[in-house]
Amino acid sequence: MRTEEETMKLITNRFLDCNVKKLRPQNLEAKVPESITIDILSHLKSHGYSHLATISCVDWIDDNEFELAYHLFSYEDRINITIQTRIDREKAKYITAKELWPVAQFYERDIHDFFGVEFEGNDNLEELILENWNHTPPMRKDFDTRKFVNEQYEWRDYHEQENAD
Amino acid sequence: MDGTYKRGSWEEVMDWFRKRSLWMLHYCTGCGAIELPPTMTSRYDMGRFGISPMATPRQADLLLVTGYLSTKTLRRLIYTYEQMQDPKFVIGFGSCAINGGMYWDSYNTIKQLDKYLPVDLYIAGCMPRPEAILDGFLELRDRIESGKADGYKKYKKNFEYYQKNQEAVLGEVQRTQ
Question: Is A160 contained in some domain?
């Protein structure tokens, strides 16, 4: 069983330019460059961090970047690690993690639904949650929900009777 | 009733029977699904009004839409409704079915259920308590007896209106019948 410090060393010994931080007991956060994220995931997987809880995405529209966060957990160490990486927002393209965890395919489909990020190597990125969506992906910050709702749906007219008279 | 059609006495007798034996299919989309178990079980006991749950759409008379509907669920709801046999009644639960409720500005939930399916009765509340639900059921019984709960006839008569609204949010809708 590793402590948090030993796990931090596990990453930084191999990958020098990683910024690993301890948030609270049993919770680590690593901000890593885009180019070595898959290597780090693979490295951690082979050292006990075998559970990929989810992949999440954040739209940092001011920085023009998407942040992908891979949430890993080790059953031996009982430590959560979040591997965060930033990718270009315009290109919105990254590499799939499905070779490491087959379940990543579904998380990536989900992110593709809601943020429009493409994952190279993932051959099944069809709609998972949404249906027949041809607008901006809805979780992007530049998607104007209110405007979309006004165009797509009609509000109930509560003054129908008054107007009729 | 629209004047041109007069209910015969046979119809009246049938309605009298219908109102006393309602099999309900509860389409548990939102939090209304939580209010139904107490309504069904011994404390409020809807069984004393002849209302019981039914497992399949083809054998049910009453469709309960218990909360918000995303567009994806709406498609399945339409399939379910069209599989049910006449006479069939729809009850919309809570403010979500009436005007979107707390999901009023959500990109993916419909705002007015009655534009897509003929709703016989709305029960207001967020969510309605079992007392309100039972009150709604009793009101529906009265409407069935007096022949006012004719949503399924309206659906056939105004099918183009409903189809237009459905296809505006869903794209093509497969018809099961």
Answer: no
In a domain, A24, yes or no: yes
- Reading the block at residue A45, the tokens are 């997987």
Q: Is the ipTM of this complex over 0.95?
A: no
Q: What are phi and psi of A124, to 5 degrees?
A: -125, 90
Tell me which residue of A96, A97, A89 sits closest to A72, measured CA to CA. Answer: A97
Q: The pTM is what? A: 0.83
Rg (CA), chain A: 20
CATH of the domain at B142: 3.40.50.12280
Structural domain span for residue A148: 4-152
Q: Which distant-in-sequence residues (6+ apart) come within 8 Å of A73 by Cβ?
A: A49, A51, A53, A79, A80, A81
Q: Are residues B103 and B71 in contact, defined by beta-carbon separation less than 8 angstroms?
A: no
Tens digit of pLDDT for each residue in B62-92? 999 988 888 889 999 999 999 998 889 999 9
- Report d(CA B78, CA B59) in Å as an integer: 16
Residue B132 lies in domain = 9-170
Which tokens hold the place of B54?
């039914």
Determine, yes or no, domain membership for A71.
yes
Total of domains in chain A: 1
Contact (CB<8Å) A131/B170: yes
In a domain, A158, yes or no: no
Number of domains composing chain B: 1
| CATH classification at residue A146 | 3.30.460.80
User: Chain B residues with CB-CB distance to A under 8 A?
Assistant: 71-72, 75, 98-100, 104-108, 110-112, 115, 169-171
Judged by CB atoms closer than 8 Å, whether chains meet at A138 and B98 is answered as no
**Minimal-distance CA residue of chain A relative to B95:** A156
